[in-house]
């Protein structure tokens, strides 16, 4: 046994989280690991005849019997998905400790866990909801203190027509948009360190060009340097998690579609809408899996590669892309050239 076995549990948790950080998980994922570990550890510390401060709890206190009792208490007020996630976190934690020689074995196989259920899609409700949302946000709202419809439409359009996660949207840079005309694409830093490329159709390309042109007028040409964040706030600073969530929520309110957004899937509903429409319009399971950056469609299904041409055909069939044409009409010259500065300047 490694000499670390007498170290406090809190020290070992921090070592585990540091090791996990090298895999580049999102801050949200790391925070979830910490919450699950600390929540169960707190129950263990409080369960003895003499409750201990959490930092006095030792790894040697965590026998299979103790872990079963703690998880039984942890599970009582929580949904099965939350319990399953916490079990997986603790299983990974003990696997790390075994590999590091801190403990001799992993007690988690002796701890019951609920069956993992595949999450159900939560797209926006209503056949025309994405079109209603985009059209509403494209109109400049006089009630806003500093309206910027080009930026707001760009955010919604990328989520609806490329199916990106919140963390992926925040990680985009101006030079994430690449490729020549007719072969445009966005390079995505995906979940779990899995990069992917999503094709961009001409309609979304025009929306993004119009947004970048408006941003250059607001903050100057230097604001659209290739290495700068693609999505920024009204001060030209990179959007953060809370700011992006608030922006999307405000777009829902302005469009009056709050009742069409599934509970618990606010921004993620845009990603789910992308996937649902792909399926409805004939995309295969392999195309959807590749475009969304899933490692597998289900736990028993292997990862399936599809060609770039198949991916582009799947995106081209997406009805939301076609809805963008009414927002930024194409012209003979580049988008944003000319006196009105783009399709939203007077809208």
TrEMBL record:
It comes from the Bacteria. Transmembrane segments: none annotated. InterPro entries: CB, DNA_brk_join_enz, Integrase-like_cat_sf, Integrase_catalytic, Integrase_recombinase_N, Integrase_SAM-like_N, Tyrosine_recombinase_XerCD. The keyword DNA-binding applies. Residues 327-347 are annotated as: Disordered. Residues 333-347 have a biased composition (Gly residues). Keywords: DNA integration, DNA recombination, DNA-binding. Coiled coil: none annotated. Residues 7-98 form the Core-binding (CB) domain. It holds the Pfam family Phage_int_SAM_1. Residues 119-316 form the Tyr recombinase domain. This is Tyrosine-type recombinase/integrase.
């Amino acid at each position: 046994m490694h000499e670390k076995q007498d170290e406090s549990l809190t020290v070992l948790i921090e070592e585990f989280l540091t090791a996990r950080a090298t895999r580049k998980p999102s801050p949200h994922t790391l925070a979830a690991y910490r919450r699950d570990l600390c929540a169960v550890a707190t129950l263990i510390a409080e369960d003895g005849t003499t409750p201990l401060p959490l930092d006095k709890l030792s790894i040697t206190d965590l026998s299979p019997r103790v872990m079963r009792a703690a998880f039984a208490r942890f599970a009582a007020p929580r949904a099965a998905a939350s319990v399953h996630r916490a079990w997986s976190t603790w299983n990974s934690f003990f696997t790390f400790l075994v590999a590091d020689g801190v403990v001799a074995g992993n007690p988690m196989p002796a701890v019951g866990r609920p069956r993992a259920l595949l999450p159900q899609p939560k797209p926006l409700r209503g056949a025309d909801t994405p079109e209603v949302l985009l059209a509403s946000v494209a109109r400049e709202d006089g009630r806003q203190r500093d309206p910027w419809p080009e930026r707001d439409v760009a955010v919604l359009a990328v989520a609806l027509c490329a199916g990106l996660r919140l963390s992926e949207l925040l990680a985009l840079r101006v030079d994430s948009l690449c490729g020549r005309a007719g072969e445009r694409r966005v390079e995505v830093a995906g979940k779990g360190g899995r990069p992917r490329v999503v094709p961009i159709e001409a309609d979304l390309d025009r929306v993004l060009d119009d947004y970048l042109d408006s941003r250059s007028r607001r903050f100057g040409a230097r604001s659209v340097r290739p290495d700068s964040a693609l999505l920024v706030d009204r001060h030209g600073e990179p959007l953060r998690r809370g700011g992006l969530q608030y922006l999307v929520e405000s777009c829902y309110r302005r469009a009056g579609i709050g009742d069409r957004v599934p509970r618990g899937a606010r921004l993620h509903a845009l990603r789910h809408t992308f996937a649902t429409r792909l399926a409805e319009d004939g995309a295969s399971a392999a195309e959807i899996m590749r475009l969304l950056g899933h490692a597998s469609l289900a736990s028993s299904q292997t990862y399936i590669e599809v060609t770039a041409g198949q991916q582009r055909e799947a995106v081209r069939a997406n009805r939301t892309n076609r809805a963008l044409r009414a927002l930024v009409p194409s012209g003979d010259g580049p988008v944003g050239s000319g006196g009105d500065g783009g399709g939203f300047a007077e809208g």
